[in-house]
Amino acid sequence: MRADRLITLMLLLHSRGRMTAQCIAQHLEVSERTVYRDVDALSSAGVPIYVQPGVGGGVFLDEHYRISLTGLSHAELQALFVESKTRPLADLGLERAEEATLLKLFAALPSVQQAEVERLRSRFFIDPANWFQVIEPSALLPTLQQAVWEDRVVEIKYQVVEGEMFEGAVNAYALVAKANIWYLVAEKSEGEFRNYRLGRIKEMRLTDQRFVRQPFDLAAYWEESCRRFEQISAQRFPPYVALLRVKPGAFWYFPGFLEGHYEQIGGASIEGSVMLRVTFDSLADARTRILGLGTGVEILESEELRQSVIETARAVLQAYESGNH
């Protein structure tokens, strides 16, 4: 643990420059006495680290000192070099910069760790996109990047999921990519933040007006925003559980689109049908999916869902028979 802490201390000073012992102690979650002991240990090992007392003083490294990457742990190598698709970085025009950065880091590694990286990249790959996910390329992204970077006000015309079109000026605070879908985090009114999905912004104009950015923790805001959204969604659309008999020709749909949301009850029948207890997002979600599977699914429970499917099917049939469609 101490070796890791010493490396972290050096990296902190290398990236931030002069720091007080109190600030270092808070970051490393140790006492100031421990910080000074670590400084003495690094100095004894030949690291040009210094302490300047008094106002404006602090702990600092020699400005010409450079840290090699020999101290990277196995887990740190994995976190840096595991292969992954980074579409959001490509959207921001940073894909080549990421590749160049990793190449420079790789070149600085000792040969033993270079071999470890090659083994790692041939064994693990991370693809953050969901199956069948629709990519939403947006011509607005470059302009919104400028707006966010320069603290600019933008005027948008936005299609709300439920409600009328929103038109107004907002302060462009940040851009967030969630599963390769981009959102604009903006201040709608003082202290009131909203998330706007880029795919639903119908029009946008970058204004010359700049806003005064307030202290804003983007990671904390987004985490709380997601938690609140999921909580509201669960309240408005409580999960709906149904018991279904599924024929062999329709079973593929459940592992393909509802993995983790169903369990099989007992074994298969002679003709190959299985009973599944399925948790849908809502009654409407259950009805829509079951109608799409046609005669491949039979509803065993509940009667409410059965009647909802029957009524919807009758309404569709009547509309087509009467020509009112």
Describe what this molecule looks like in 3D.
- With 325 residues, this protein is α+β, with helices and mostly antiparallel strands.
- The protein has helices at 2-16, 21-28, 32-44, 74-81, 87-91, 95-108, 111-121, 141-149, 218-236, 253-257, 283-292, 303-322; strands spanning 49-52, 58-61, 83-84, 125-126, 152-158, 166-178, 181-189, 192-197, 201-210, 240-246, 262-265, 274-280, 297-301.
- The longest helix has 20 residues, at 303-322.
- The strands form four sheets. Strands 8-7-6-5-9 form a five-stranded antiparallel beta sheet, with helices on one face. Strands 11-12-10-13 form a four-stranded antiparallel beta sheet. A two-stranded antiparallel ribbon has the order 1-2.
- It has four domains: 2-61, Arc Repressor Mutant, subunit A (Orthogonal Bundle); 78-126, no CATH class; 141-235, SH3 type barrels, CATH 2.30.30; 240-322, Alpha-Beta Plaits (2-Layer Sandwich), CATH 3.30.70.
- A hairpin with a 5-residue loop joins strand 1 and strand 2 (58-61).
- 42% of the residues lie in helices and 25% in strands.
- The mean pLDDT is 87.
- It has twelve helices and 13 strands.
